[in-house]
Amino acid sequence: MKELLEEVKLADEVGLDVFAFGEHHRPDFVISAPEVILGAAAAITKNIKLSSSVTVLSSADPVRTFQNFATVDLLSDGRAEIMAGRGSFIESFPLFGYDLNDYDELFTEKLDLLVKINQSEKVSWKGKLRAPIDNKGVYPRPLQEKLPIWLAVGGTPASAIRAGKMNLPMTVALLGGRADQFVPFVNLYRETAKNAGHDVDKLQLAISSQFYVADNEQRAVEEFYPSYEILMNRVGRERGWSPLSRPQFEYMRNDGPLMVGNEQQVIDKILYQHELFNNTRFLAQLVTGYISHKNVLRAIELYGTKVAPAVRKELGISPKII
């Protein structure tokens, strides 16, 4: 936990725009309550936006989620964001007493309630899977007029349609395949928003890929691969995937969305993804389990001082995409 706080503090100091913490309920991840560490991060940073990389809203209570993030917003002087999703892992459902058969309906209902709370101080709401609310106030309110609520998605068309209809910013996690395979998915998001009467030019889109940068390509590969191999094979055993091979890793790094290499290699790949998607944000997803803390800090330093400035200069933008 202390290492994570050092990482977000450094990210703020080197000028990165956003830092996000995930939510997991497994022995191989340390954060189950991202709002708590976000509150700690708020006290030691000045400018960087603070988000969950996913809040598993299906198994959380929207009222409590809003209250927690509103608290982070107050602590951070208006820098909090929520990234809501259904989650890639399902441990939280039995842990909190939810039925996996209600997987999608739980998310739909709770997202609707969270958005309503964000829009209005007092809420009246009724659903099937949660007790109704009759004109009750939800406090505290955030410093921002409204909390930014992003949808974190993995590529299911229904998720793009939902985000487009609701006019919510969307984060797409590119974890496999080729990046260009996701272009129709992103187009569906924008087309749905347009058909719903929303201003497509104001839509925000984030692309997230697993990431590691080092001073040279060989060092990046050799430092990153052990963590990546163990993570992918651990998850793969649970899901029936074939074990990850080194050639598969190299394919993902060269032709897939995996961003592992020297400064110029990751700059080029971020710019390539921007050309495909015209995204307004890129989120670098660190896989750090077997990488030394010193090397993780070096990767963040390179990202903030070398990679991000080069991307911003090439695109002619202010620091709001990285």
TrEMBL record:
Residues 2-276 form the Luciferase-like domain. Keywords: Monooxygenase, Oxidoreductase. Gene3D superfamilies: Luciferase-like domain. It comes from the Bacteria. GO terms for cellular component: cytosol. CDD domains: Flavin_utilizing_monoxygenases. GO terms for molecular function: monooxygenase activity; oxidoreductase activity, acting on paired donors, with incorporation or reduction of molecular oxygen. Pfam families: Bac_luciferase. This is Probable oxidoreductase, LLM family. It comes from Dyadobacter koreensis.
